[in-house]
């Protein structure tokens, strides 16, 4: 039995296979519509979500399976004081696979230690978000036909943004990528991730506070929301929230084929005028999220 807590729980070859399977599902959805008949996915969401939870549920339904779950801690026995360990043991009696989102870093790993079924981390605090990463990789692969030798810019809240941490870890599996980290000083990428990256041979990065100075060399621009819920005080959030706002005029300096990604939700960091630019790929990225989760469910259930 395998769990996905971190994107590197899959090897590079397994990620390549997962993306190939996702592509096959996109091209032949009918061939997969009964694969999970009789199987149940449980979604255990202790934190708000739109895309991740609904794409998991839509993925399982499109495979012919069923879904159960809760969308907030208030509507589960967590509100009575039940631990994640106990809840996941219980869920293991009702479902064949589960996806868990929790505000605490490490909660998905704890769930995996007690579960009798495969556990997928759907986001643990400011730590990791592997299925968003597989979505991002499928989007990049579809647009660039490669996951190597790219210049990838990350902009916004690189400290608390778990999608950034996961994507960075996964891209390190592929050779010759260059990274440009754009953030205010308070929201820089955690040092442990940079050190780990350097150890794993992806130390080709620069850090800057300026998007304009760096946008011209990027193949991918990964914009992120400032993670309000992870701040200790509202004052700091208010001061930092509009540090970067991508507008058509800032895009004027970018490559004509640069792709703009964003895990969403967007708050203010990409102006709506950018949506009609062909480089804006964030809504296509949403669509890929369902197919990659279909592929992952099939893989973990051994189907
Ligand atoms: C992200 C998350 O939850 O980390 N959303 C998502 O899953 N697509 C990004 C965010 O909330 O900013």
Identify the notable features of this structure and list them briefly.
four-stranded parallel beta sheet; alpha/beta; 15% strand; binds N-carbamoyl-L-aspartate; 303 residues
Inertia-based shape: globular
The tally of strands reads 9
Q: By helix and strand content, what is the structural category?
A: alpha/beta
> Multimeric state of these chains?
single chain
- Helix % is 25-40%
How many strands, which pairing sense, and closed or not: the largest β-sheet?
A: 5 strands, parallel
Per DSSP, what share of the residues sits in E-state strands of 2 or more residues?
A: 5-15%
* Distance linking N and C termini: 13 Å
Tally of DSSP helical segments: 10
Bound molecules: N-carbamoyl-L-aspartate
- Biggest sheet strand line-up: 7-6-5-8-9
Give the SSE string: HEHEHEHEHEHEHEEHHEH
- Indicate the radius of gyration in whole angstroms: 19 Å
Summarize model confidence as the mean pLDDT. Answer: 96
Describe the model.
This protein has 303 residues and is an alpha/beta fold. Helices cover 36% and strands 15% of the residues. It contains ten helices and nine strands. A five-stranded parallel β-sheet has the order 7-6-5-8-9, with helices on one face. The protein has a four-stranded parallel β-sheet with strand order 2-1-3-4, with helices on both faces. It is globular. The model has no long low-confidence stretch (mean pLDDT 96). The structure holds N-carbamoyl-L-aspartate (NCD).
Summarize the SSE layout with pairings.
Blueprint: H1 12-27, E1 40-45, H2 51-62, E2 66-70, H3 84-91, E3 97-102, H4 107-114, E4 119-124, H5 130-144, E5 151-155, H6 162-171, E6 178-182, H7 191-199, E7 205-208, E8 220-223, H8 234-240, H9 248-251, E9 259-261, H10 282-300
Parallel strand pairs: 1-2, 1-3, 3-4, 5-6, 5-8, 6-7, 8-9
Helix pairs in contact: 1-5, 1-10, 2-10, 3-4, 5-6, 5-10
The site of N-carbamoyl-L-aspartate (NCD) has 11 residues, from helix 2 and helix 6.
């Amino acid at each position: 039995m395998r769990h996905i807590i971190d994107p590197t729980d899959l090897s590079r070859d397994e990620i390549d296979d997962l993306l190939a399977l996702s592509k096959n599902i996109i091209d032949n959805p009918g061939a997969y519509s009964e694969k999970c008949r009789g199987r149940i996915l449980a979604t255990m969401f202790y934190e708000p979500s739109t895309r991740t939870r609904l794409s998991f549920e839509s993925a399982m339904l499109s495979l012919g399976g069923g879904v159960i779950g809760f969308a907030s801690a208030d509507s589960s026995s967590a509100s009575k004081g039940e631990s994640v360990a106990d809840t996941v043991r219980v869920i293991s009696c009702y479902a064949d696979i589960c996806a868990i989102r929790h505000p605490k870093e490490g909660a998905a790993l704890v769930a995996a230690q007690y579960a009798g079924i495969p556990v997928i981390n759907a986001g643990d605090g400011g730590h990791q978000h592997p299925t968003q990463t597989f979505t991002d990789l499928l989007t990049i692969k579809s647009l660039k036909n490669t996951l190597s030798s790219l210049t990838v810019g990350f902009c916004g809240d690189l400290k608390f943004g778990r999608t950034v941490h996961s994507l960075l870890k996964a891209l390190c599996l592929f050779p010759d990528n260059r990274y440009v980290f754009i953030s205010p000083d308070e929201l820089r990428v955690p040092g442990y991730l940079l050190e780990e990256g350097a150890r794993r041979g992806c130390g080709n990065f620069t850090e800057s506070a300026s998007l304009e100075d760096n946008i011209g060399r990027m193949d991918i621009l990964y914009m992120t929301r400032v993670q309000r819920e992870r701040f200790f005080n509202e004052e700091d959030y208010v001061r930092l929230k509009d540090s970067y706002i991508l507008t058509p005029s800032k895009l004027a300096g970018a490559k004509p084929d640069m792709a703009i990604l964003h895990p969403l939700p967007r708050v203010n960091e990409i102006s709506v005028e950018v949506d009609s630019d062909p480089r804006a790929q964030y809504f296509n990225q949403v669509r890929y999220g369902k197919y990659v989760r279909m592929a992952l469910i099939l893989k973990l259930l051994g189907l």
